[in-house]
Amino acid sequence: MQNDKRIKFINPETMPPTFGYTHAVEVRNARTIYVSGQVALNKEGQVVGIGDLAAQTKQVFENIQFALEAAGVSFDHVVKLTFFVTDISKMHIVREIRDQYVNTETPPASSAVEVSKLIREELLIEIEAIAVADM
């Protein structure tokens, strides 16, 4: 998707430098896929990696990948990620896992928010994704 003329990654020189994200992504004439916030639950509904942010983040990205594949797309089609973490000081761990999935040459627009709690006490991270594909 990085060579797709319908998608433009925008990082103006008048804005601060980016580290693993794009300031804005313009999308024209494409099908949009919204992936609900995913948490570190496996297909049996069990929490993966209790107390381990890296293991939970990997499971979350795997869950997003499964959802994207079901829609006929991949992480190459993701234009926006939103991260909800219970400890923002550990965001470097999340970024290391993220970079194994997203195109680091043209990373998606992103937001990261620290939250006091997620849907279950054991969960440390939740991530939403937006992807675009051919019509």
Percent helix range: 10-25%
Summarize the main sheet: 4 strands, mixed
Task: Give the strand line-up of the largest sheet.
Answer: 3-6-4-5
User: Can you name the CATH architecture?
Assistant: 2-Layer Sandwich
Q: What's the number of extended β-strand segments?
A: 6
Based on secondary structure, the structural category is: alpha+beta
Q: What amount of the residues lies in strands?
A: 25-35%
Query: What gap, in angstroms, lies between the N and C termini?
Result: 14 Å
Tally of helical runs = 2
Low-confidence stretches: none
- Return the string of H and E elements: EEEHEHEE
Radius of gyration: 15 Å
Instruction: Please tell me the overall pLDDT.
Output: 94
CATH class: Alpha Beta
CATH superfamily: RutC-like
What would you call the shape?
globular
Overall structural domain count: 1
Give me the CATH fold name: 60s Ribosomal Protein L30, Chain: A
GO cellular component, one term: cytosol
Pfam family, one: Ribonuc_L-PSP
Family: Belongs to the RutC family.
Protein name: RidA family protein
Describe this structure in words.
GO terms for molecular function: deaminase activity. This protein is α+β, with helices and mostly antiparallel strands and 135 residues long. The protein has a single domain, classed as 2-Layer Sandwich (60s Ribosomal Protein L30, Chain: A). Helices cover 19% and strands 29% of the residues. The chain contains two helices and six strands, in the order E-E-E-H-E-H-E-E. The strands form two sheets. A four-stranded mixed beta sheet has the order 3-6-4-5. It has a two-stranded antiparallel ribbon with strand order 1-2. Strand 4, helix 2 and strand 5 form a beta-alpha-beta unit. Helix 1 runs parallel beside helix 2. The chain is globular and about 40 Å long. The mean pLDDT is 94.
